[in-house]
Amino acid sequence: MSGYIIRRVLWGVVLLVIVTALLFLMFRFLPTADPAKLRAGRLQSPKIIAAIRHDLGLDKSTFAQFWLYMKNVFLHFNLGYSYYSNAPVKELILDRLPATISLVLGGAIVWLVTGVGVGVISARRAGSRMDRASMGTALVLVSAPEYWLGLIALYLFAEDIGQVHLFPGAGSYVPLTSDPVKWFESLILPWLVVAAGTAAIYARLVRGSMIETMEEDYIRTARAKGLSERRVVLRHGLRAAINPVVTVLGLDIGVLLGSSVLVETVFNIPGIGRLNYVAITHADFPIVQGTVLLAALFIIIANILVDIGYAFLDPRVRYS
After folding, report:
1. CA-to-CA distance for 253 and 109, rounded, in angstroms?
2. Distance, CA of 291 to CA of 304 (rounded, Å)
3. Residue 158: helix, strand or coil by DSSP?
4. Which tops the pLDDT comparison, 193 or 28?
5. 22 with 35: CB under 8 angstroms?
6. To the nearest 5 percent, what fractions of the chain are helix, strand and coil?
7. d(Cα 23, Cα 28) in Å, to the nearest integer?
8. Closest by alpha carbon to 186, among 109, 111, 102?
9. Largest Cα–Cα distance of the chain, in whole Å?
10. Angle value at C-alpha 5, between 3 and 9, nearest 5 degrees
11. pTM for this structure?
12. pLDDT in tens, 257-293
């Protein structure tokens, strides 16, 4: 098991190096604005632009720039500086990271509990009215864009503009360390919006997997031994049927930690996604590179954790 984990970590590092190299080449060779002119702003005299290009290392060869960038990222964890604010990208990301983690992990708990619960109930009552209603609702939620769900949620339930004043609206986010109660209240609507579509996917996935699993021979054997139906479903059926959910859970969390731009923009949450959105609109490429690299790191870590989790959930899985 330990040897497998070491190999996966090493391959993850190699993949991260490849992603970093591709990001560097993409922003160097694709037609984009001149970083020196962006940093200069209105003071775009040739002398100032030349000085900025020297400070940014843009007057060096492409290979020299590439080597410097890779060395800064992997040896010094230096992601560069913003073209506009000249602030370190690493500090900007770390400052926004707690908000994104709060949004994604809270949403993950909601969609996991709701999706698995609805999926198990629908599988046990397959073909019933409740099953058809829940799966129909799931199909609608899967098809609905997150930004649309967010706007509808604000219109219906926000305290400022909602028809029913239940939850804080956009721009109400408060850090956990400042006020835990207000932090929780400000994230209720974003959590529900983040979880809606994903919970629907999980419900359909668990339903299909549970229906297939409950027809297996070992399930009939467990029933023949006199075990209660609840124990058969939860301990034997769900444990085997949840493997596909573990796979998509790790990927979903990894992706959302790096790309929760729509929900953060709608609810004005100061997270990584909104930081990336603002950076894209201002062509602030060091920030875009940093956030994309962070997203890749989250996805790689999530995949490694998913593979490790299989060994604990399914005794048939063995790594060597």
Report:
1. 11
2. 20
3. strand
4. 193
5. no
6. 75, 0, 25
7. 9
8. 102
9. 86
10. 120
11. 0.79
12. 766 778 888 888 888 888 888 888 777 788 888 888 8
42 φ, ψ (degrees, to nearest 5)? -85, -15
Distance CA 116, CA 240 (A): 13
For all residues of the chain together, what is the average pLDDT? 80
Which pair of tokens denotes residue 115? 């999706």
* Residue 151, burial from CB neighbour count under 10 angstroms (0-12, 13-18, 19+): middle
135, 93, 20: which is closest to 257 by C-alpha? 93
Whose structure tokens read 């207000």?
Answer: 182
Element (H, E) at 118: helix 89-124
Backbone angles phi, psi at 167, to 5 degrees: -125, 155
Q: Which two tokens stand for residue 88?
A: 């370190």
SS3 60: coil
Q: Give the H/E segment covering residue 143.
A: helix 129-143
Rounded to the nearest 10 degrees, what angle do helices 272-281 and 243-259 cross at?
Answer: 50
Give per-residue pLDDT as tens, 192-220. 888 888 888 888 888 888 887 777 777 77
Distance CA 120, CA 285 (A): 45
Q: Which residues pair with 81 in a beta bridge?
A: 88
Please write the tens of the pLDDT for every residue from 140-183. 887 888 888 888 888 888 888 878 888 888 888 888 888 888 89
Residue 32: is its pLDDT beyond 70? Answer: no
Residue 42 corresponds to which tokens in the numbers above? 């209105």
Q: Is 167 helix (H, G, I), strand (E, B) or coil?
A: strand
